[in-house]
Amino acid sequence: MNVLEFSLIVWAGSLIAGFLGALTGLGGGVVLVPMLTLLLGVDIRYAIGASLVSVIATSSGAAAAYVKEGFSNIRIGMFLEVATTIGALVGATLATHVSGGAIATIFGLVLIGSAYLSRKPRSKEEREAPQDPLATKLRLNGSFPDAEGLREYNVQHVPAGWSLMFVAGALSGLLGIGSGAMKVLAMDRAMKIPFKVSTTTSNFMIGVTAAASAGIYFSRGYIDPALSMPVMLGVLGGSLLGTRVLVKAETKWLRRVFSLVIVALGIEMLYKGLSGKI
Amino acid sequence: MSTDRSWNDRKMDIFIGDLLRAGVLSSALVVLVGAIIYLVGNGRSPADYRLFHSEPSDFRTVRGVLRDAIALRGRGIIQLGLLLLIATPVARVAFSIFGFAREHDHLYAIVAAIVLLILVYALVFS
Hints:
Order of helices and strands of chain A: HHHHHHHEEHHHHH
Number of domains of chain A: 1
Distance between the termini of chain B: 45 Å
Oligomer: heterodimer
Number of helices of chain A: 12
Radius of gyration of chain A: 18 Å
Number of domains of chain B: 1
Number of strands of chain A: 2
Strand content of chain B: under 5%
Largest sheet of chain B: none
Strand order of the largest sheet of chain A: 1-2
Order of helices and strands of chain B: HHHH
Number of strands of chain B: 0
Structural class of chain A: mainly alpha
């Protein structure tokens, strides 16, 4: 295979990765890492570098649209980024002391369990929960465009959400990928934030988490320009397509796609954890 | 008061959205230029990423990337575009500090400043 053919294949795969990443708030790594390592035989370190590039491209490309259209909540994102970035630093420091395999296995099981939960739509009482004093004080409550116009929402359980975000950050520092899934779950399940706001705000945040570790990977030589080039251009195109679909899509379908993708991510994590390839 | 607040929030959303778009589009453009130069010169050589041999220092330091990009080497230009891409979320956090301060939302100006500090710490001390 020559460079041109290889680049075209990677570009096409990245288009799908970016599309799913923007739609689910997970970034493109879920699709990209197994495609590069298992199908194309790329070394895992180059694949992680390329996946990092894809997360930043998906995040920034899609967030531009989601923020402007009023889906992502900038205050929720900013407030929780404090937790994820500190978590990422702690995770990166711990990475040399703990077994990545065990953590990947546990994380994989958690994801498969959560996939079942996240398919269920929220009940009417949960949707109309009263204002939480802490969330009000932090100005986290907001609104987003729905089929019937703007819909207001009240954020719940701020301390639990913040703690889960810390765990999400630590996991990304420890395992290199997978922080988007925990972010969506923390916002959707714990904080009772509407699903579209959860995925788009996660999408808004993952770029910052990835940028925090980009320095290390860049200086270690994980980011290969020739490999990252088709990844970045493909992911960007796919993510712009994804934003158009999300805006109009029914939440029911988005939940289904999300739970399928996190089952795949869970299996990926179990495979990594049990085979010791981490 | 509440309408005034949401109007300001709207302006902030549009500002942040435009900033992200500008960062992503300019980095994509730079990567595309590098891609064309690289593929014209190397498109027919065999592709091999099976073995990891770390990148040469040209692609691992900001100075090396700039030197290669100025010399119009394809991969140097791509790497410069990737650095611009990595800088985009960092710039977003930095500009949010000013945005929130102009909105007189001091709490969130401080929150954004904390995030920026952690980010800079992670980028510099890693």
